[in-house]
Amino acid sequence: MRHNKSGRKLNRNSSHRSAMFKNMARAVLIHETIRTTEAKAKELRGVVDGLITLALKNDLSARRQAYKVLGNHQLVKRLFDEVGPRYTGGNGGYTRIVKLSQPRVGDSAPMVIFELTKLAEQGAEVTAPKAEPKTEAAPAE
What we know:
One of its GO terms (molecular function) is structural constituent of ribosome. By secondary structure, this protein is an alpha+beta fold. It contains 4 helices and 3 strands; from the N terminus they run H-E-H-H-H-E-E. It is globular, with a radius of gyration of 21 Å.
């Protein structure tokens, strides 16, 4: 019987699953939005929400626990300094799953976009300068 065994297996063994979710959590913190299957996204939600909850605690123990998942000091710093403070004063609702209309081509798996609800401000990114309209020179007489 399968009592008290939560979570999807996703046709992987436990070490492969944990490594996959660590990699996906890193990708979400770097890019803030990723494209994946619906089943993986629903399982990933618990991992990423747990990391953001740790970032809201903001103590040494929480940083060490986040490092166990992320394995990168720069990502832990970004999680605690940039991503975590966006969610202060809220209870949950850190991630969003948006279903895509087209399934994956190879196996028809339902695809989703997994993203953080509060994305980085768009004004912070460097934008390319707009091209100025060309003025025609007056013909010489």
